[in-house]
Amino acid sequence: IQFKNQADWLQEQLDQSKVQTIFAYESMPEVMHMTRVGNYVVSEDGSGMPDIVKKVAKMLVKGRDEDALYGYMKLLKIMRTMLPLIPKKAKDFKNWMQVYTYWMHPTAENLASMFNYIMSEYFDVNVKAAKVQEVPTMGFYHPDAPDYMKDLHHYEKWLYKKNKASKEQNNIAMLFFRKHLLQEKEYIDNTIRAIEAKGLNPLPVFVMGVEGHVAAREWFTHTKIDMLINMMGFGFVGGPAGATTPGASAAAREEILGKLNAPYVVSQPLFIQDINSWKTQGVVPLQSAMTYALPEMDGAVCPVVLGAIKDGRLHTVPDRLDRLSTLAKKFSELRHTPNHDKKVAFVVYDYPPGMGRKASAALLDVPKSIYKMLQRLQSEGYNVGEMPESPEALLAMFDKATDYEIQAHEPDCFAIDRATFNSITTDRERERIEARWSGFPGEIAPVGVDKMFLGGLTLGNVFIGVQPRLGIQGDPMRLLFDKENTPHHQYIAFYRWISREFGAHALVHVGMHGTVEWMPGLQLGVTGDCWPDALLGEVPHFYIYPVNNPSEANIAKRRGYATMISHNIPPLSRAGLYKELPTFKDMLNDYRERGLEKMVDVETETAILEKAENLNLTDDCPRIEGEPFSEYISRLYIYLLELETKLISNALHVFGETPELETQVTTISEYLKVRGNERSLPSVIMQAIGESETWGDYAALATRARKGDQKALKVREKVDDITKDFIEQTIFSNSNAGNVFSVLTGGARANEEMAAAINSALQEGAALKQGLQDNSHEMQSFLRALNGEYLPSGPGGDLVRDGASVLPTGRNMHA
Prior knowledge:
single chain; alpha/beta; 6-stranded mixed β-sheet; 5-stranded mixed β-sheet; 35 helices; about 10% strand; globular; nucleotide-binding; ligase; BchH
């Protein structure tokens, strides 16, 4: 038991029952403290294991903090051999250990003996308990093998005897619970068989749960694997119990998964849900934590739910086993296909359709980004055909090749016929589609009566297509909740053509965001009846996505089996005022100054109102009924000042490129303004120039400025300028911070407390600068993805709010 709500519920039941004997194992401290075995109780002082036990356990795993729990398991095994030596006065502790020994080997025979032992020791029942039948704590298993195998060498030797072709086949590593192997092994056997059916070698390893990463490090890093499938969920290091030392988990994860350098997949049956609950509701929150949230922090992808509980047993669904094994096969092919033979499909968007938005995405320059990717692919040996001479030429070619109005009348129009459509869709899929959209070819993109337009640009082994429009109006998110809706004929044909006719080794969605991941189906734990699974489950799927939107990226990751590749957001800069706004601002300022001297007239007021309406300023800053004109003018003037200083993205990011120096300075300045509260860099500057006594910290000053306080506006502008100059001269020009601070603040010297705050700001700013200046990870990750390698994980978030923690981009982003 690792969740507090479960622990609280259990405590309530125990309080009501007034039970006297309680054995608790392998659970969170709150549950372990419930232990009551005669005179033996687990300490409630929160100290956990005695120091001597911790030291011995750590020694057994050679000092690795991330292996501490595994060390405890090894120590317990040693302690069990010493049970006969425990003195009689510690009888209850001895019994607790003896029961744990049975519990650690949960075969039916051992569990029966465990209850007999408890009954004889604490309930005066005259029964005998058989000795423990021991099972290894971790090792290799195969349903055809006569026994468990203790290491990789013995397993590979046995596998070769079983199948001489195994040395030529690619390996898929598997991790699963030892307890399930002893009690629920049907789903394990079925998964092994499904992987073998694809011509792959399963490397199936059972573990107690806390030592999965140990098995991976000790065995899988000494062979070549094409995928690691974790069937346990939870975090990679420590499993259900997690790591005992903060930071040890991340470091060990990066070390081990980096060495394996293969896609990391968490795929399992739902351990706490039944089949009906899953297929009607999707994955419930408690289950989703172990299946999605925790594994995603480790870089897990393709979370195929294999089944759920049926008639009290874990049950697998055949088409889910096929989905997982197909993805394993496809990723394996991606890793081993030479670059010059590898086929890559890029998908871009056209939303709203027909509005000049083709090949556009939020925050990303799609044509320039794809052009750069094609250039890099060409240098890596991919067949990209005859490259257009520029991004603009590429866009022009693509626009023409995907224009239905033009292409539908051409003799060589890129379309598919009825027979092809029927061959790449199932009877059930066509039945559902025709119930919503009528018969083939539908009304979206027909070419005559027996063909349907797809469109797209092929350059060698690269296909670039535009995602078909939805055929419905409004927000695609509502599709998620519309169970009766379906993709239309062209939509499913587009994705099936990519996977089955074109034969793509990889599918790449470029930018935020498409509609396919929002197609009808379960929110979490998609089944074969869910449209995202039908459309995206056949090809390794990669999604280039802005780093500042991890929540929607998770939708694509969980419903569309996508590996995310985060990209930086466009450079931030001050909006400024454009066109007639600067002149209008001066007009307002002139009016306010003359108003103080009572030198205003009605004609001027009328002219100002008309100008405000013509500039559409009254939409965002309307005059309040009964508001004196002078007050409205002051409010309108403040609105223009805020508009002028507002941060905006004034360009689109080009994948893999570094932003301009000036925008880097602006981004770091804004980030440091919200760090440290009263010890933020601007707050320290205010203290140095003698403004903190009047205004407090920078946050308080900014609040007053937003309310239109003229003095506050001027002070804020001065502090902002000093902050920006300080960052530019120190972080970017490496000038002495003390000297720069003194010059910019009129000779002020920072005291010890101020100096500490400044140094902290400089360290954070330097870290952010490093991340901003190196976007090479984006292109490197893209190439690694197409090699079928592991992409390190990293959090998404806002650059100004979250800073360097979301950098470098190019990582497999999680929320």
